[in-house]
């Protein structure tokens, strides 16, 4: 029994979306038993368990003696991030194929809004402070020489001491 290159090792799905974990394999003779397993669960193809549906085996149209097994997971949750294994048995033996499911959690819209508002507030505070420092001449630029700027700062310091 061989695994087809059509099988992906990792399947990604966003939280609350449906996901399909698929294995394409070749076997001659046809499998007599196939089931999906994860954690402590075992689900025969052609049956369902809650949000999990193991579809019946499908013959692959492109490859002779090849089959597709699909495990559908409805509204995936974070806890569904794990390895799912398809077990296949025919008259010649047993084998298994594993596929990992990675559940991605989308950023909450409130988090995106909070980051945007925080950035705007930071920018306003920074610009306000910058304008204040320039207007009060606490930041010296080209309007004065370095000596004049140092004298101005020293004079302000002395004026504050004598108050």
Automatic annotation (TrEMBL):
Gene3D superfamilies cross-referenced by the UniProt entry: Immunoglobulins
Membrane-traversing stretches: 107-134
Keywords, ordered alphabetically: Membrane, Transmembrane, Transmembrane helix
Domain of life: Eukaryota
Protein name (database record): Putative cell adhesion molecule ixodes scapularis cell adhesion molecule
Organism: Amblyomma cajennense
């Amino acid at each position: 029994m061989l695994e087809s290159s059509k099988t992906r090792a990792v399947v990604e799905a966003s939280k609350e979306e449906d996901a399909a974990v698929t294995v394409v394999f070749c076997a001659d003779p046809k499998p007599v038993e196939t089931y999906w397993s994860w954690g402590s669960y075992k689900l025969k193809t052609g049956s369902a368990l809650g949000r999990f549906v193991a579809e019946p085996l499908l013959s692959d149209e492109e490859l002779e003696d090849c089959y597709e097994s699909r495990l559908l997971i409805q509204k995936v949750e974070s806890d569904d991030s794990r390895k799912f294994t398809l077990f296949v048995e025919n008259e010649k033996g047993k084998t298994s194929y594993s596929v990992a499911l990675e559940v991605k959690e989308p950023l909450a819209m409130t988090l995106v809004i909070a980051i945007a508002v925080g950035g705007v507030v930071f920018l306003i505070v920074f610009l306000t402070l910058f304008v204040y420092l320039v207007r009060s001449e606490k930041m010296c630029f080209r309007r004065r020489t370095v000596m004049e700027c140092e004298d101005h700062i020293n004079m302000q310091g002395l004026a504050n001491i004598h108050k």
